[in-house]
Amino acid sequence: MTGVPYPHPTQAVVLAGGQGSRLRPYTDDRPKPMVEIPGTGTPIIGHQLAWLAAEGVTDAVVSCGHLADVLQDWLDQAELPLRVTTVVETEPLGRGGGLKYAAASLPRPDQPWYATNGDIWTRFSLREMADFHHERGAEATLALARPRIPWGAVETDPFGHVLDFIEAPPSPYLINAGVYVFSAAFRGLLPDRGDHERMTFPRLARERRLAGFPLPHGAYWRAIDTAKDLTEAASELARYGHGHGQGRAF
């Protein structure tokens, strides 16, 4: 297929049904993706949809759950840069089942698609990730981040002498960043109920059909899990802005 342009995905699923219990009281009256980044006046999902649109996505399916009506009301009233459809799980299907249920509403089932967790605030080139996915012939590709350890580290020599103190060093391990590129056929590999990270991904990994795309150096990425994450995101926004290639590097 060399020389044939790869059609970048133009559709995406946003998983936005989480309760966000660790973000209370912010999530007492709204779902986690509706929590605003301080200083922006825009909820997390608003930043996500703007990013997806900037990366060429024209249609997004938002999977709602906890306090779905609050999210749906905001989507109905907001001026959005792309077409948005919402689906609501009437019973818990698990992450994989929920993803499969939402993907059934994608407008182009024969084309590849992106997916993102609803609590991720990030900026990097999805088109580059899609090219990476295509070049490796993968059924699924997940973005990989290297978060900073939230504690200071101590470096020692083999004899136990302390050599240095390192404040919040990068983790030696890559983690799933919660952003994906999927082939058109991937939906058929998802469970009707259950977790794709425990059921589908391990099988694809054994078959070498799962790829991992390391986020480019300097790309901004943060999972909004706690009130501390909100505070730090606001601080980083004030310091760097949140454009492509800015913010906290991983």
TrEMBL record:
Residues 12-237 form the Nucleotidyl transferase domain. InterPro entries: Mannose-1P_guanyltransferase (IPR050486), NTP_transferase_dom (IPR005835), Nucleotide-diphossugar_trans (IPR029044). It comes from the Bacteria. This is NDP-sugar synthase. Pfam families: NTP_transferase (PF00483). Gene3D superfamilies: Spore Coat Polysaccharide Biosynthesis Protein SpsA, Chain A. It comes from Streptomyces ochraceiscleroticus.
